[in-house]
Each structure stands twice: as structure tokens, then as C-alpha cells.
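Possible regression after last week's pipeline update?

I re-ran a chain I had predicted before the update to compare outputs. Posting the input and the new output here so someone can diff against the archived version. Not blocking, just want to make sure nothing changed silently.
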Amino acid sequence: MAISVVMPALEMAQETGKLVQWLKKEGEQVKKGDMLLEVETDKAVVEVEAQGDGMLGGVLAKAGDVVPVGQTIAWLLKAGEAPPSPSGAPAQTGRKMDGAATAAAAAVASAAPEPPPVVNARISPKARRLAREHDVDITRLRGSGPGGEILADDILKAASAKTAAPASAAAPAARVPAPGAPAPAAPPAAARPASAPAPIAGGVQALSTIGKIMAERTTQSWQKVPHFFVMRDVDATALNATRERLIPIIEQSHGVKVTHTDLMVAAVARALRAHPRLNSFYTDDGTTILPEVNVALAMAVENAVVTAAIRNADSASLGDIAKRRKELADRARANKLQPADIQGATFTISNLGMFKVDAFTAIIVPPQAGILAVGAITDRVVAIGKMIAIRPMMTLTLSSDHRVVDGARAAQFLDEVVTALENPESLV
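New output (post-update):
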């Protein structure tokens, strides 16, 4: 029997996925567990494995298409088997058309009559909310989801079209010389000083799928999650010394160089185990305490930030944490993250110390209850007892969801993290 290959749901609240590329060719034999395709979500580009054996056939989506979650995009077929008849709505094409195709489409659109209003349009709850926020009339939209359902991406496209239309109308028309008239002379070189910088090319830069959804999620988190922040400075003297001592040991045992981030993951994971309210999800029914401690790291990639989780970090050795962190970073940079890498995170660390940022506040990743922002280690003048000294210091800022965590719990959690970092031998 043919096995349906569907657009997978790789995370909570995901409605669509963008097909980046097929890793197998149509007509090629596939084994269960083989990497079959790459999908782009709001967090990463993820490799998806085949759920069975068979020949890849009946491919319905191509690279660049945005497809609703659960929609069939291909089949895995047995010998002599034909793919079933395609059903459901076609995928949305995520790629840009060339100039000729765009002009032709515009001509057809201008000549075509305006579509009649859609009565009782099917629309996802997320799309309905976006329609209210962007003042989009859903009665004039035809959705790209199954059965014509209006999706969030349809609303965002309609909102972008509304914004672009007045700007286009306001732009002055280019003056075209009459036939046979000489071309207008170029402005003299002296019109712009030789030392003046080249003009910046204007225009709208399209967001990637990750960028779009990240923008939406962070806005939603900031508007709906009641953030509050607690900050502590850490004396990193012992942390630096312990890292230097461990570098050759862990490099020999695990083949990786231990970093400050690895020690931070170990400290946070152990503190989460002792303070489970920070290792929980908020839901309308209450707070869900999570059985695993899976610490995610926010990592910058091209045009986006992705998060990937170190699972069971509270029970992992420092060497195992360092090895896992390097694997995730390498895969993220190569756009090769797998579904297991981005799923199940219970708390996030965002470290901007390598960018020489002293301190910052981070936005919580729902439905998590907290995120820790880590600044750079810099030499500062501090009071040690009644003496003044110069010490390497680091600022930590904890963002917490006040629906789950109160100030006292947040302070106790952060104190435990600081104590561990200032006494790092306890993490080894």
C-alpha cells in the first residue's frame, strides 16, 4: 500500500512548512529512516526522514512551495504501484516569478473582474486574529489551504498587498522621452562630492519563512506574555580558570573544546532540576511541570536566529554537553538540523557575549516560562569586601513569565545559577 508523505508538523502551532528541497529524486528507492526532504520552519531548516520503504513517486510539491501541515506532497510506492489521485489544495508557490511572468500576471489581474465576496469562509483561528490586526477583509480572500481554508500566510500576503498599493500609486511616473528625442544628459560628476558614500539601494527586503514566523512569534510573546526581569552579575574568575583547566581534558575525551556556554548549560540545567517552575509550560488549564530538562541554545544563522535543544542536560556530563552543542551549531550553520534537534526544549539560553554585548533582555519563547540572556565577560572594578579589585565580570538577565513564576522564585533560580558559575568545579 502506498505511504503518504505529508508536510510534517515539527513544532507547536505550526500551520505550514516550506519545502526547501527533496533529498531523493522522483523514481529513486527510499529506505525507512533515509533523509527524504528539507523543510523550513520558523526555527530552522530541518531534514525529515522517510517513514517507510518504497519508491518516491507522485511528487506534488517542489522546492520553494509553502504547504499546509498534513497535506500530502508525495508517495512512497511499492513495485508496480501507481500513486493515488492527488487531493487537497495545491501548494502555495513561495518562489518569485521572473519579470515577464510578473508582468503577464499583472496584466491578467488588471483585466480580470474582482472576485465576488466569499460567504462563510473557512479560516484558521490564527489567520482570523491576523486579519483583525491587519484590517484584512476575509470575505474577499480565497484561501490556499485544504478546501479553500484561509491560512495565516494568505492574510499576511493580503496585508502586504494593501501596504504596497498606496506606495505604488504615489510613486511619480518616469518621464519617457519622445521618439527621436535625445536622451537626457547625465548629471555632472561634481554634483556629488568624491568623498560621499555610495547611495544605499532602497526597497523592501523579503523575509524568509523563518524570519516571518519569528517576527510573528516574538511579537505575540511580547504582547501576550507578562515578562519581568531579574539581573545578577557573576564573578567569572573561577569560571575562566576551570574552563582553561578542562579544555585539554575534554578535548582529549570528547574531541571538542569546552566553552563558557557549555558551563552555562550545565549550571542552568541543574538549577532547573531544583526549581521546576522555571522548567514548565503555561497553558490555559494551568502550569505543566515538564519531566525532562532540555536546554535550548539560541544560535544566529544567516538572516535568522534558530534554537536547538540539548536534551536531558541536567544529567549529561560536561563533555557530552560540549559535544552536543558543537553538533547542533554545525548542523544549524549548514541548515541540516533534524526534527529532534528543535523539539522539546523546556528553557532557552541566549548568549551574546561573543558579540561584546554587556547585557540585554531576551524575549521568552512560548510556551516556555523563561529565557536567560548572557552578556560578555569583561574586566570591571568591583568591591571585594572592603577592598577594590579588577575582576572578570558577566551579567545575566532572566526573563520570566509572571503567570508561572513570581519574583522570589526567579531570584532563587538565578542565585543558584550564579552560585554554580562562581563555583564551577561542582559542574564537572
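Follow-up from reviewer: compared with the archived run. Confidence is low (pLDDT under 50) at residues 88-120, 167-179. Marking as no regression found.
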